Amino acid sequence: MTTGLRSARVTRRIRRAEGVIGLTLSGVDGALPSWTPGAHIDVLLPSGQCRQYSLCGPVTSRDYEIAVRVDPNGRGGSREVHEALRPDTTVTISEPRNRFALERAQSYLFVAGGIGITPLLPMVEAVDALGLDWQLVYCGRTRASMPFRDELEMYSDRVRLWPDDERGVVDVPGIVRAAVAARPDVAIYTCGPGPLIDAMKAAVCAAGAAPLRFERFTAAPEMNPTVPQGTSGFEVQLGVDGPVLAVGEKQSVLQAVLDAGADVLYSCEEGTCGSCQTTVLDGVVDHRDDLLSDAERADRQMLICVSRCAGDRLVLDIPAP
């Protein structure tokens, strides 16, 4: 579960591109915690919805910068950000978490799709400051829809913009092959919508490159949190002395916990954001996410929106309602 919640105030709001706004968040009680490239925060909106946004400003700043594209077909979180978060608005945010950390290498290829540029921007700034070899391919529907174009102009020889309406669909296999041919040890990072991630995975595998580092801004297509596949019912206990809940075959742990009235954070319900990460006090977990690391799983963590019990009962570190 998300910890380290604090209040932040919107101190700046600007238009970044068509349908994209940039927000600067400042700590109400002083400087916000430090962070590293690739990190994101949870933002608890006035309606109670929780959404995750990558930090995209300078890592040296004690304010946070995020950029949000409105999604007319989404569940309303991005619309609420655009409509409700104005200067002087106060929101609750989490401490930064980083599941997309930048690892040291000698050469980098960054491939961004649309708003997926946000976690890659601080990475570009970091590797450039170190004088390392890198290139960025930045795809989008149109130039007007691509935020941070102006900021990237200073790296013109290393950055390739790829608007679909001008150049067609990005040549992912060709880009990856060329990068690997030039530097077989190249570290490849990508962030964007599902089709881009899937294409990058296939291209990296075909090129024989090192494992792809990626962050998916949409859930993997095979995930279905509301109807888990191949499951049976089990029990969940809230704390060592709390109530015992029945979790049905077609019910997630998260749904059972919410139905019981417990107060937990959640957002994606698809095992991709990490907001519902919970400590397991007892029991064996059937992990069904692709987000938690082996170390986190060994540390008794689980995502209750998709993962289940491999036995009869889980005891979770969730306060009883």
TrEMBL record:
This enzyme's EC code(s): 1.-.-.-
Biological process, per Gene Ontology: methylation
Occurrences of domain 2Fe-2S ferredoxin-type (ranges): 234-321
Species of provenance: Mycolicibacterium tokaiense
Taxonomic classification: Bacteria, Bacillati, Actinomycetota, Actinomycetes, Mycobacteriales
Gene Ontology molecular function: 2 iron, 2 sulfur cluster binding; metal ion binding; methyltransferase activity; oxidoreductase activity
EC category: oxidoreductase
Highest rank taxon of the organism: Bacteria
Protein name in the entry: Putative vanillate O-demethylase reductase subunit
Cofactor (UniProt): FAD
